[in-house]
Amino acid sequence: MITTLQSRPVLVTGATGYIGGRLIPRLLSRGYRVRCLAREPRKISGRPWATDPNVELLRCDVADREALTAAMDGCGAAYYLVHSMMAAGATYRQRDRDLARCFAEAAEAAGLERIIYLGGLGELGDQLSEHLVSRREVETVLAAGAVPVTVFRAAMIIGSGSASFEILRYLVERLPVMITPRWVATECQPIAVRNVLYYLIACLDEPATVGKTLDIGGPEIMPYRRILQTMAEALGLRKRLIIPVPVLTPRLSSLWIHLVTPISRRIARPLAEGLRNRVVCRNDEASRQMPQRLLTVREAIDAALGKLRSYGVETSWSDAGTLPGDPDWAGGTVFIDRRILPVAATANAAFRAVCRIGGGQGYYAADWLWQVRGWLDRLVGGPGLRRGRREPEAVGYGEALDFWRVTGIEPDRRLELRAEMKLPGKASLTFEVEPDPQDVGRCTIIQTARFEPKGLFGLAYWYAVLPLHSIVFSGMLEGIRRAAETGRSRESAHERPP
Question: pTM value?
């Protein structure tokens, strides 16, 4: 039997994000038609589900009310999974309110039946963190519209690639002794990402959830201290020595998280502030209306670690990073380091070798220099190398790759990376593969590094690193050639980041 909602497309915003990217294939498996909105559809065009006949990919900015209303036309329900914390920085609260208001007005104009929103769990009161206050403000703005809203409030979501999970894993792996804020004694009710996804979909078939606010959490309530120790057990590590102190502020905590984990301080600070709030479900209404087996904290951690070990991470917290427009290389000083190398391999083999750079594979040469550059970047507030990559072989448009972002990809022909490390200027690294017209078993790789300096410091930076280029870039290109010709990636001695 096809329900009314199943006969009409379901709209998903935040399709490039952590939850949205996992929600879509599960909606498809349940028989729903899905309309995905993204400012840049190319970021998701390479996903396995993107070519499903029941998927529509639309270019749309949630801030554009007219375009949003048109995109909603004919849809029955819409998932609002938008969060501007990464893009808007300190002004994210106002930005989130504006986007939610625009969405509610567009939903009313388009005649939507309902909106589903995933927010944050936390006790009400003056002590609520700014991050959780923002989540509540979005709830209020959405609910003020004419379209009924189903709100799910979740605490820590445990899943491979989630920001909370990565913070936990890296802290436990790298710090046998932890000096922590007092919030390690705060109670939390974590939930596995698969349980969150089940609730988000099951509510479509449950009329009683319309217009409701539902707290969702796993079966256990425990302090963060115990969650850290559970992670240590799952990793096969000794029990961690945790020493809480009263002097660590959210700002200091976020800086420490930034240095030790892959999470940037821009994201770490609101997360650290939110940890001071007790986040426990007030009732079990959600589990009674939509029963499922809820994973324990250990089961959720084991499942996430299993995905990491099998390279089965569907989405990552870094996937939703902003993609600035292509830089204007004309009209200013631009330094170019271009290297060309013939390869005795097919264009496909060469391109696959190119796409393996970064993460645990490394950069084929002088990996210690890349690691030093990554640590220096972390010290000054950049992402460093710890974002790693989602898969060891394939990359997609818009994905993070260490401190790079994939801003262009043409299979077997071209890969463009935009630098997101802290730099006194703009930088990119492009690989082009040109097949030999006379011999399909041969090709040429053109590797181009571009740097547009900003001010005198930018000029000084370029000339300071210029002597290293012959080591780093020549070695990398030669390593790519060897990998392409042998058809094998180099075995990495160090751990592959997620």
Answer: 0.71
